[in-house]
From TrEMBL, chain A:
Name under which the protein is recorded: Monovalent cation/H(+) antiporter subunit G
Highest taxon above the source species: Archaea
Statement: the UniProt record of this protein carries the keyword Iron-sulfur: no
Native species: Haloplanus rubicundus
A UniProt-annotated Pfam family: PhaG_MnhG_YufB
Record GO terms (molecular function): sodium:proton antiporter activity
Keywords of this entry: Membrane, Transmembrane, Transmembrane helix
Region (Disordered): 90-113
Residues annotated as transmembrane: 6-30, 42-61, 67-86
PANTHER family found in the cross-reference section: ANTIPORTER SUBUNIT MNHG2-RELATED
From TrEMBL, chain B:
Upper taxonomic lineage: Archaea, Methanobacteriati, Methanobacteriota, Stenosarchaea group, Halobacteria
UniProt keyword terms in alphabetical order: Cell membrane, Membrane, Transmembrane, Transmembrane helix
Membrane topology, from the record: Multi-pass membrane protein
TM region(s), chain numbering: 46-64, 70-89, 101-122, 142-166
Feature: compositional bias, Acidic residues: 1-20
Name listed for the protein in its UniProt record: Cation:proton antiporter
Pfam families tied to this protein: MnhB
Keyword presence, Hydrolase: no
Subcellular location field: Cell membrane
Length: 113, 187
């Protein structure tokens, strides 16, 4: 492996790790806002790092230029989408979960509604 | 909507005003006025031309590589959907009349049919584009791309129309023209 490929591998592996963190956050966190918090940040970083790794491996080609464009647009649009979702949730008066409330027991008692 | 169910008291409060989770069915008069967000508006202003360009790119690439009319049409329609998210659905819907959308869809269908039946005129079957080679250089390629653009126009028009139909509410009396659009949506 050339040093460039090692760098790209590190980028892709770290990006995959952040994607995993986002997935765990979406599954484990209790309500919409905290899930969004976990998903938006880690998912943006994960996809951007993975795409950057691919762009490094491809070198200076048309494909890597397309990947750079993808990275830029993901970096702009993904947080904006998260902001829009959180804003819409607030406008629809979705309440964040209160301190000390346990969502899991009620979820299971109600048959995971 | 398990998030809304996490706090039963708040859900009950909302239930007094609107019909639970069916908030999409609220007519426009009962909805709170839309407050624009600077972040979303700025991003959409920057992104929208690029998205439209990408839609046209994907549409025109359908003949030779990955892409096609359906995907490109959806991406192009995303532009209008994004504008609706950023600036409010009603102001955008006021700019795009349903008759115009229906005309757009019909023109796409017309393009498809013209290219399709044109295959008979140049001595072939329906949509047999190889006959166009005799008319002009690279005729089959350009006619396939014309078909792709027609499909893309149909898809984007239908997606936009359905989005406005969902966004502005189905059950208001002023939306009677929307039912005219729906038969085209089935194609």
């Amino acid at each position: 492996m050339t040093p460039l490929e090692i760098v790209a591998t590190v980028f892709v592996v770290v990006g995959t790790f952040f994607g995993l963190v986002a997935t765990v956050g979406i599954i484990r966190l209790p309500d919409l806002y905290s899930r969004l918090h976990a998903a938006s940040k880690s998912d943006t970083l994960g996809s951007v790092l993975s795409l950057a790794g691919l762009a490094i491996v491809l070198g200076l080609t048309t494909e890597s230029m397309k990947l750079v464009f993808l990275v830029v647009f993901l970096f702009v649009t993904s947080p904006t989408a998260a902001h829009a979702i959180a804003r819409a949730a607030k406008e629809e008066e979705v309440e964040p979960i209160g301190e000390g409330e346990v969502p899991w027991t009620t979820d299971q008692e109600e048959g995971n509604s | 909507m398990s998030d809304a169910d996490a706090d039963p008291d708040a859900a009950a409060d909302i239930d007094d005003e609107v019909d639970g989770e069916g908030t999409l069915s609220r007519p426009a008069s009962e909805r709170p006025p839309y407050v624009e967000s600077t972040i979303i508006m700025t991003t959409v202003r920057v992104i929208a031309p690029f998205v439209l360009t990408l839609g046209a790119f994907v549409m025109l690439h359908g003949a030779s590589s990955a892409g096609g009319g359906f995907q490109g049409g959806v991406i192009a329609a995303t532009t209008v959907v994004m504008l609706g998210f950023a600036f409010g659905i009603e102001p955008i819907a006021a700019h795009l009349r349903n008759e115009q959308l229906a005309l757009l869809v019909l023109s796409g269908v017309g393009t498809f049919l013209v290219v399709g039946f044109g295959g008979y005129l140049v001595g072939g079957n329906f949509l047999q584009v190889s006959g166009y080679e005799t008319l002009f250089h690279n005729g089959s390629k350009y006619s396939i791309e014309l078909v792709e653009v027609g499909i893309g126009v149909v898809v984007s028009g239908v997606i936009t129309g359905l989005f406005f139909l969902l966004g502005t509410g189905v059950d208001t009396g002023a939306e009677e023209t929307d039912t005219d659009t729906e038969p085209e949506a089935d194609r």
